[in-house]
């Protein structure tokens, strides 16, 4: 990973770059607004956003969403670093568990301590999110991680 890479909270003006990155990797972005970016972490190389990850908060639970790294940077450690940054950030804000659905990153996330779980195990407010009800396919892997302890 380059020493010029910086991880930081997303800013409202990052919205176009984050949407472009999500589109480039085939992830949903149509619902994403500047308000969502309050709970996003971005990875920058100079002024370019090369990675992003968001958390939707539901009380003490969170939903990881919009996890993307530019293809040229995959395998460089940016993905795990983004996840660690997001986990630390929301843990400091009282989030005790994170949940997500993925069709592509299950192996990486399991290596980082996420465990497969049945959708029925996910707290109802998270299950009611658009990610669970309409955006992610039924065959997406459901994963969870406790941030306690």
TrEMBL record:
Keyword annotations for this protein?
Answer: Acyltransferase, Transferase
Which PROSITE patterns does the record match to this protein?
GNAT (PS51186)
Q: Which domain of life is it from?
A: Bacteria
Q: Name one GO molecular function term.
A: acyltransferase activity, transferring groups other than amino-acyl groups
- List the InterPro entries hit by this protein, alphabetically: Acyl_CoA_acyltransferase, Bact_Acetyltransf, GNAT_dom
Q: Where is the N-acetyltransferase domain?
A: 5-148
Look up keyword Transferase and say if it applies. Answer: yes
- PANTHER family attached to this UniProt entry: AMINOALKYLPHOSPHONATE N-ACETYLTRANSFERASE-RELATED-RELATED (PTHR43877)
Q: What is this protein called?
A: Amino-acid N-acetyltransferase
The organism of origin for this protein: Plasticicumulans lactativorans
């Amino acid at each position: 990973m380059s020493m010029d890479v910086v991880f930081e909270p997303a800013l409202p003006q990052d919205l176009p770059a984050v949407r472009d990155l999500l589109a480039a990797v085939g992830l949903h972005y149509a619902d994403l607004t500047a308000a969502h970016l309050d709970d996003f972490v971005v990875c920058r190389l100079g002024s370019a956003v090369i990675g992003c990850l968001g958390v939707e908060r539901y009380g003490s639970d969170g939903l990881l969403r919009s996890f993307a790294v530019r293809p040229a940077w995959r395998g460089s450690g940016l993905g795990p670093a983004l996840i660690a940054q997001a986990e630390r950030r929301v843990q400091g804000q009282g989030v005790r568990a994170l949940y997500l659905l993925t069709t592509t990153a299950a192996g990486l996330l399991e290596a980082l301590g996420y465990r497969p779980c049945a959708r029925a195990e996910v707290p109802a407010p998270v299950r009611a999110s658009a990610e669970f009800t309409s955006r992610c396919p039924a065959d997406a892997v459901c994963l969870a991680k406790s941030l306690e302890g």
